[in-house]
Each structure stands twice: as C-alpha cells, then as structure tokens.
Amino acid sequence: MDTAERVLAYGGGWLDRAGPLRTDPARVEALLAEPTTVVLPMWRDRCLVDGDGPVRLSADRASLVRSAAGEIVFLGLDGDVAVFAADLSALPERSAAEMAGAARAVDVRALVGRLEPGDAAVQAYARGLLHWHRQQRFCGTCGASTVAGGGGHLRTCTGGECGRLLFPRIEPAIIVLVEAPGSPGRCLLARHAGAPEDAFSTLAGFVEVGESLEDAVRREMAEEAGVTVTDVTYQGSQAWPFPAGLMVGFRATATSDEVRVDGEELLEARWFTRAELRERVTSGRSLGRVDAIDHRLLEDWLAGMS
Ligand SMILES: [Zn+2]
User: Fold this and answer.
1) Which regions of the chain does DSSP assign to beta strands (E)?
2) Which of 174, 186, 200, 283 is the most exposed place for a label (fewest CB within 10 A)?
3) Spatial distance between the Cα atoms of 213 and 77, rounded to a whole number of angstroms
4) Exposure of 228 in the CB half-sphere (CA atoms within 13 A)
5) Dist. CA 133 → ligand 1 center (Å)
6) Pairing between β-strand 38-43 and β-strand 81-87 as defined by DSSP bridges
7) CA dist list (Å): 50 to 38, 54, 66, 239
8) How far is the CA of 107 from the centre of ligand 1 (A)?
9) Which residues pair with 229 in a beta bridge?
10) From the CA of 241, how far away is ligand 1's center (Å)?
C-alpha cells in the first residue's frame, strides 16, 4: 500500500461535505435549526475542549453560541446529522469556554494523538475554514466589507460595483525525501534555521506562482541545498490547514552527493544511511513531526531496501 492510500493525520474525515447543499441558504438555515444538529465551537484556531475532548454542542446550547459567533459554517453531514462550526474568537478565551461549556482552548495539533483520526480531520477542517473567514473580512480589490455565503464556503464583497466572490485558498507546499545516487541508500536531511542543534528533517518549501509541483521540488532542492534532483515521484498529500496548507510529498534522486546549504533557511544538510536513521530512532529522536507527512516519508524510506 502506498503513502497516498494510507490516511495521514488530518485526513479521512467522517463528514460528507454535502457541497450541493451549500448553494441553498434556506436549506442550510433549516439544518442549523434541526434538533439533532451538532455545532463545533472554536476559539482563535483552537478547539474548545472538556475532559472528553473537543466539545460538540447540541441544538439548545448551539442557539446560545449563535448569538456570539463570528461565523457559523456548514461543515457537512454525519449521516443525517448536520455538523457546523462556530467561531467564538471575538470573546475572551474564558468567556468562549464558558459559553461552550468547555474547560479550555487547545490546538488540534496538541490533541491529534488522542483523537480519533476522523475527529482530528474535522477539527482541522473547521479550524482552517474559520481562520480563512477571519482573514477575509474585507475585499482585496475595493476594500469594502465582505459577507459569508455558500454555507460558509465563500464570501461576497458588499461593494456595489465590485461584488467579487472570495473562495477559501489553499497554499500548497512540497516536502521531499531526496535520495543520494548509488548505494548504499542514503537520504538527505537538513537542520532548519531555528531548529534545535540535532533536529534533522526532510526538505520542504512553498509552491510559487506559475510552478508545477515538480518544478517546485527541483527549485527548492537547488535553492536550499544546492542539490539537482531527477526522478521526482509523488508519494501522497496531507491536509495541513495550519492555517491553509496542503503538503504534497515526493521522493527525488540527487544527481550527485554534493550538498551546499543556503545558510538561511537551512543551516546544515547531510546524507543519512538507514542504519544511521534507525540509530537515531533507537536513541529516542523522532523522525520528523509525528503528525506530518515527513514522518511518513521517512518511515517508508526506512522500510525500503538497500
Ligand atoms: Zn470588492
């Protein structure tokens, strides 16, 4: 089974996103009033949690939250149950928690190991969508205010002449496991600026305007590590709404052993054999971020031959 077929953290959510329903505002409003409807409250990119995890509000408490929510967005359907997310960011944290019947606000990334994978995916989805709304309150073209529509999946400029539609934007980034040419097998890991002394991870970067994903892989590896790569192959992708990312994983092969870091984004980069990586794991050092696709890329590579 390849990386793309296995669910990474923040993927595999249990919701039917029910996109066609978004275009019917009366239907969305009716769903919000259903007694079975669930509302997930969020506060400034964080889940509101009690002792059992993220709070799920039923209709009676949800009506209270509605009065204070910046936006309420339709996430989708869980069977017949409509699921919404409500943004309580305008309140102080304590007030938001009290209103939701929660104990505190916690980032989903701090909860991911304890949540069911599908729950983590839905919380991350809610986080990303509500974040986008808070960042798009004004039109970038004419400066007029914008209002939410489409069940919370678009915003419309209120400027009469303009009326531009704004849709949530995803910012793709590539993350790459670069292998050395020849044998024994070695992969390139780097120490990033700001990272601890012995923290090595795979190389990554944002896709620029006018680039394909493969172009971005080749450019980033050359810019950051002075490495020319070929055989760029897709490994899988990961939702990364922190706040708007999509991580796209690749493997690539370097044309030579030579490495020359840029000294800005990367402070050091070097080749590791599988034995060296295994020794790092044995001595308690993690392989990348455990909730992220770089961990998976490294695990897959370690499981490989040679
Ligand atoms: Zn406008």
Assistant:
1) 38-43, 46-50, 53-54, 72-78, 81-87, 104-106, 146-149, 154-157, 165-166, 171-179, 186-192, 203-206, 229-240, 245-254, 266-273
2) 283
3) 32
4) 2
5) 15
6) parallel
7) 16, 6, 20, 25
8) 33
9) 254
10) 26
**Interval between CA 159 and ligand 1 midpoint (Å):** 5
Residue 225 token pair: 């590590």
- What is the reported pTM? 0.92
CB neighbours of residue 53 within 10 Å: 16
Query: How far apart (Å, rounded) are the C-alpha atoms in residues 203 and 224?
Result: 8
Close Cβ partners of 175 (under 8 Å, ≥ 6 residues apart): 202, 203, 204, 247, 248, 249, 250, 292, 293, 294, 297
Whole-number Å distance, alpha carbon 136 to ligand 1 midpoint, is 11
CA of 135 to the centre of ligand 1 (A): 15
Beta-bridged to residue 192, according to DSSP, are: 266
Residues contacting residue 56 through CB under 8 Å, at least 6 positions apart: 38, 39, 40
Separation between Cα atoms, residue 191 and residue 197, nearest integer Å: 8
Output the CA 167–ligand 1 centroid distance in Å. 13
Q: What percent of the chain has pLDDT over 70?
A: 97
Which is it for strands 245-254 and 171-179: parallel, antiparallel or unpaired?
Answer: parallel
Residues paired with 85 in a beta bridge: 40, 73
At residue 3 the predicted structure's pLDDT band, cuts being 50, 70 and 90, is very low
| Centre of ligand 1 from the C-alpha of residue 26, in Å | 25
Question: Quick one: CA dihedral 19, 24, 30, 33, positive or negative?
Answer: positive
